[in-house]
Structure formats: structure tokens, C-alpha cells
Amino acid sequence: MALGKAFSISLLGLRGTAIEVECDISSNLPNFVLVGLPDVSLNESVSRVRSACSNAGVSLPARRITVNLSPAAIPKFGSGFDLAIALAVLSAAGEVSGENVAKCIHLGELGLDSSLRPIRGVLPAVVAARELGFRKFVVPQENLGEARLVEGVAVFGASCLADVLVHHGRIGDKLKRPKLVSFENEVSAEQSAVHPDVAEVIGQELAITALTVAAAGGHHLLMIGPPGAGKTMLAERLPTVLPDLSVEQALETTAIYSLANGSIGQDSLMRRPPFVAPHHSASMTSLVGGGLGSPRPGAISMAHNGVLFLDETPEFQTSALESLRQPLESGRVVIARSKGSAEFPARFQLVLAANPCPCGRAGSSNCSCTAQQLMRYKSKLSGPLLDRVDIQLRVQSAKAKVLRAASGGQTTSAEVRLRVQAARNAATERLRGTSWATNATVSGSWLRTQAKLPPKLLGSLDRALEREVISMRGYDRCLRLSWTLADLAGRTVPSAEDVAMAMYLRGVDSIG
Q: For the chain, where do the domains classified as CATH 3.40.50.300 start and end?
């Protein structure tokens, strides 16, 4: 009896579990058995591993091969275990040093020609394995860049199974390597990138102010206005005025994209906030996450530490919109399945854009909408959802004379970003020692105790609460906006004007 061992990582969400791949070769009838709760794609590893080993010049013995993925109770998904299974089998067969193999985490899918193909989720897998105490990794060459983003680990990138065997001390004279074909992308990301700027928005000074406040405090934003008023332009420029991500935020965001898309060739962290704008036909699963097999992150997680923009919001499915309510409060989403629960971070800034009515001309003599159509349209934006949106602003169309007068010289995104960064620095200093980083995430109890404002400043807010014009949540959100306005103005405490402006930006009647 011969035994071999290798290690890999199983991901459920961003949470990783070390999987011990054990191989036993016995003198029974030839067979290759894979146990340990594998899914369909993982069961197919048997055929891929057998062919890959044969084409690499290290044929498997004609005996009974049993591979166990331990812990057996944890579900395993995908083809990323191929390399670990192959190394465990070859270690048991004496083709490679078992001691060297057992010291590394092996990730990668094997092709029938023994080539090592890239997989999704290498970055979060390496991060999870490092936290479990592993320091050496073998990954596909295409995943090498993202794996090296994790500090404190040694990563080897391989193009085929023969490269891995040589790395583990196997003499390579009889090993075979496949002919690899590479395709060069003619258009680089830098060449195809588009850089919008706030200075391109004309005649929307109030909306730009609201955008600046949203960026400075991390507040959610709703814009309601006629078609062509500039709502989409404003939303697309919000990421340009947000500060760069911290190293921790960048690592977390890049890990999500690695798990969702497989960030092949990603050799640097995503230092700019992401901007995600799904089409209004998006399902609840595509927004929140999920899917068959291993749950995948949805749009709200792809927008983590960035902006989620829902254009034509009333056209989205009601169930999809309502599914945002819990993540907006908690900053995370837990996707429960029968085989386990996957948790993804979802701390994003929500930007909603809507027309005032289906035809977009509400309030004018040209509006063709019936009262029933108008009521149905407005009901798509429920009160509980809107109550979680800090800034609710009406955007008016720019007048012709404003367009004619525009001659450049408007404030640029770079200038706004400097103001936003200064305001965030002030908030960070005030919130030092707490678990919050922006005003939008501060709890209401802390605002009413540790950062309590004088009663004379809160008279209008108190009256609005008494008349049930705003809810308790809306009251707290006005307080958060007041502090953000003070931070932008360089004040240590909000003024009466800040509170009044916060109530205006809150737009209690913005959809009425």
C-alpha cells in the first residue's frame, strides 16, 4: 500500500478551508475513485488527471487509486483541485517527493495535454491559506500575478504539470511538455480606458454639490429628473471624486473580482473604487449573488468599496430592489444554501436614477401618463428602500442660456476629490477609536450621545420627526449629512445651515 498527500483550498464565498488530498494506491483491480463530497465538475477530475499525467510522461499505475478530499463533510466545487489530486497520486506512486508536495498549496485545472489552466478565486484562496498558516503555493502561470499580490508568501507559477514536477525535485529528462499558444491583447486597458470628469457636467451645480457630499460621507444618492438632465453623467462621475482605496480595501475588492471573473493577468491591486451599473433586467440573484453550485458574488459585492448605479430604477424587478435593503444596513450579504452559507462583503454606495413618471415629462402639459400609471411607477420605489437613501434630489434640465454661457473652467474631478479627501480625513480623526470610517456608517446612538448637537440646532429636525414627515432612520441620516457638510466646510461642529442643507438634500418630498 502506498500513500500520498497534497493540499488545496476550498472556497465558500471568501472563506477558505484547507483541503487535504489523500491518495491510496492498493493492489486491487484497476480503478480511480474520488471521494469526499465532490461536485460534478470535480468528479470529472479523474479523467483530466489520468490523461494529463500520461501526456506529461508519468503514467499512473494500473492499480486501484483512491483519492479522498478531507474534511469530507465540506462541499467542494470546481476544477481547481486537479493539480493537488495529480500531485497526491504521483506522490503515492513515487514519481515525486511526497515531502516537498505536502509543504505547498496546489491550485489549478489540468488540461488533457497536461497544461495548467487558470482558475477563479486564486487571490482569495491564497489569502485564506495564509491565514491558515501556509506559506508556499503553486498556481497556474496566468494566476501568478494576482497570487503575488499577497504579502508574506512564496508563489511558483507553472505552465504545465511537468513544470510542477521539476519544481518538486523530479528529474525532467523524460517529462513531456505541451505546446502552449499565447494570445496577446492588442488593446491595453490603459488605451481603452475612459476617464469622465465632473467638469463635463453643465448647469447642475446643486447636483454636483450633492455628489460631493455623497462622496465625502459615503452616502447613498437618489436622483429624480427628466430624461437628458444629466443623472447618468453625474453617477458615472462619482467614482472619479472618491479617494483611492486603502491597501486592505484594495485587496478585498480585488479578491472579489478574482472569485467572480478570475482576474487573469491581474498583477496589481484595484486601487480605484469600482463602478458597477447592471441593466434594469437584472435578476435578484445577479444583484445579490448566488447561482448553482458554489455561490458567486453579485453586483452589490462587485461594487464593494465603490459605487452601485441602478439607472432607470423603477424598471428593475421589485424583488431585486427590495433585496438591497438588508445589505444597505449591514454591509454584507449571506447567501444560504443547503450545503452551506457563503458570506460576501457588500459595503457600497448606492446611486439610484429615475424619471419622474414613465414618459419623463411629469408636471408639464406634455405628460401623457395616467394617474394609474403614475401610481404604479412610483410604487416600484418602496418607502423602506427610500428611507435608506440619504440624499434624495430632484435634478432639473439645464436651461439654454446656461448651456450657451458655459465656457469651461468648471470644477474638475481632481479638485473635488481633494475636498472629499480632506473631509474624509476630518471624519476619520473624529471617529478614531470606533469601528466606523465614514459618516454614512456611524450609528444613530453614537450621533445622539457622543456627537450630540445642541437642541437649538435640531428644532426643525425634531418638528419633522414629530409630524412623522421623516422616520427615526431619516432623522439619523440627516444628522450624518450634517456632519459631512461640516467636514466639507472645515467646521468641527455642524451649524444651523448644515442641518437645514441636510434636510434639503434628504428631500422628504422628492418623489411626491
A: 195-361+368-437
Q: Say which residues have a Cβ less than 8 Å from residue 375's Cβ, sequence separation at least 6.
A: none
Residues 6+ positions from 56 with CB-CB distance below 8 Å: 114, 160, 161, 162, 165, 175, 176, 177
Rounded to whole angstroms, the Cα distance separating 198 from 410 reads 8
394 within 8 A of 510, measured Cβ to Cβ: yes
pLDDT-derived band of residue 366, with 50, 70 and 90 as boundaries?
A: confident
Q: pTM (2 decimals)?
A: 0.89
CB 348 within 8 A of CB 218: no
User: Of the ranges 176-185, 329-338, 413-422, 423-432, which one carries the lowest mean pLDDT score?
Assistant: 176-185
Which residues are CB-neighbours of 121 under 8 A, at least 6 positions away? 11, 80, 258, 259, 262
The confidence score (pLDDT) of residue 1 equals 56
Rg (CA), the chain: 28
* C-beta of residue 397 within 8 angstroms of C-beta of residue 229: yes
- Residues 38-57 have pLDDT tens digits of 888 899 999 999 999 999 99
| Mean of pLDDT values over 279-308 | 92
**Euclidean distance between CA atoms 11 and 124, whole angstroms:** 8
> CATH classification of 2-167 is 3.30.70.360, yes or no?
no
d(CA 295, CA 291): 5
Neighbours of 353 (CB within 10 A): 23
* Region(s) of the chain under CATH 3.30.230.10: 2-167
Q: Which residue has the cell 458574488?
A: 297
Query: pLDDT (tens digit, 9 = 90+) per residue, 54-80?
Result: 999 998 999 999 999 999 888 888 899
The CATH architecture of the domain made up of 195-361+368-437 is 3-Layer(aba) Sandwich (3.40)
Picking from 45, 4, 6, the residue whose alpha carbon sits closest to that of residue 23 is: 4
pLDDT of 445 over the 80 cut: yes
Cα dihedral across residues 440, 443, 445, 447: positive or negative: negative
End-to-end CA distance of the chain: 77
DSSP-based three-state secondary structure for 214: helix
- Residue 337 CA to residue 324 CA, distance in Å, equals 19
Judging by DSSP bridges, how do beta strands 221-224 and 391-394 pair with one another? parallel
Measure the CA–CA gap between 195 and 251, rounded to whole angstroms: 23
Hey, is 438 helix, strand or coil?
A: coil
Give me the sign of the Cα torsion angle 140, 145, 150, 153: positive
Mean pLDDT across the chain: 90
- CB atoms < 10 A from the CB of 18, how many? 17
pLDDT at 185 over 70: no
Asked if 48 and 110 touch (Cβ cutoff 8 Å), the reply is yes
